[in-house]
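worker-03 picked up job from queue 'complexes'. Input manifest follows; three sequence lines, order preserved.
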Amino acid sequence: MTEFLTAALGFILAILAVGLVRILRGPGDADRMMAAQLIGTSGIAALLLLGTVSGVPAAVDVAMTLALLAAFTSIAFVKKGTARFETDAPGSTEAE
Amino acid sequence: MTLAPMTFASMTFALALEIVLAAVVLTGAVWAIAARGTLPAVAGFVAYGLLLSLVWVRLGAPDVALTEAAIGSGLTGALLVGAAARLRLSEVPMAVERPGVILRVLAAVLSVTVAAALAASVLLLPDPAPTLAPAAAENAAATSLGNPVTNVLMAFRAMDTLLEKIVLLLALIGVWSLAPDRFWGGRPGPRHHADPYGVLAFVARVLPPVGIIVGIYILWTSADNPGGAFQGGTILAAMWLLVMMAGLADAPPVSERRLRLLLLVGPVVFLIVGLGGLAFGDAFLAYPMAYAKALILVIEFAMILTIAVTLGLLIAGPPERELGS
Amino acid sequence: MSFVLDIVTITAVSAGAFFFLAGTVGLLRFPDTLTRLHALTKADNLGLGLMVLGLLPHAGSLRDGIKLICVWLIVLLAGATVSQLIGYVARREGSRP
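worker-03 finished. Artifact:
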């Protein structure tokens, strides 16, 4: 079981590395953000697997913290310090 | 979960895992340095922080992993993005002054030398390495706390923790002092606006309650499990910043009395308990053994408020709007 | 009983890993930003969800199990939001010359 989970963990880490390369290359901001999202989610999966493989139950707490902070950091990236975040969704009450 | 006894297969698997992990960490580091443009570089830095927290978990240090994930990766990433936004105007003239190739190569050589020296000094340590860990473990009964890291932070080296909190306040005053005179005491950052029915406002209403529960849980569990006031406070600060970024609440003016009381409550409670130890006990910050756990929890609850507010204000930056605007 | 749980773990984690792979391949190979986004969200929801399901039998206690599910729910919420924001950024980019 441990070996299987370790193999799965290595697989997830490889996917994470691919996401890294994508951020470096990916043309445009949207692709970079998507790669960042992939890295975040695979990082959390890797943390959960690593916690079980290494016998560190607190890894779940680290994953919870990471999930919350990843949401916060992604939004900080999107806002990029700008004050006004326009959305033109239908039914939006904000005039552009 | 208990691990099965180590067989040869599992040892090889473990070794392969650690090699893969190290390789990905190095990739992340190289990538963060090689990226062109500030935002991809900051994204690489945040990813690198995530990988580091994986390494810390692998090394059996979940408290450090929590801190790395929360502050080293998440909050610092937001800080860097804010700094990059402020520097946007000067990015073009700065690009002209970029140091030449020779200087950059020299800097790289120097960095590699320092890293090699550190690696050598760690690998050449005598085996077993000199450490105070057994002494700390022996005296764990002094506070009846289960988490040895909390023991060290709040009991054996409580003085350091107290001074760190004061250093945080000094840093905040330093950040505030960057404001032009006319903005002194005003609100930090611009007034954020977002569609109140949009996605950003939605997540800023749903996520913070969850975040607050998780943050307080991380503090509460630090008595016997990995956690701490610092990590919990960071989560609270991130939730507060999220609410501000979505425009659901405005940043308070830095001269507001309630804000300043919150900034002070942590170090002041810490000091009072410390002086109480001096008056009624053996020394400054000595806890009577019967009340040690309760006192430590009181200090930590006061500290988490201060840490949350301080970190939030540090990220928000110096005041940019006049008082009364 | 433990054998059944092991089978559940292996199946679920493998399926989760497959969805992660699918999401990554989609991110790399799909032609359009929005289709890439679609592929990515599969990794978030299904990949992580199946992995959490697979790791639940190995959780130390009920509390650990609840924490695992909470992690998945938080990632779902955050992922849904960020996907909307990515869509917004993609549209904003597409309209620029």
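worker-03 released lock.
Residues 88-96 of chain A have pLDDT under 50 and may be disordered.
Chain A is about 75% helix and 0% strand.
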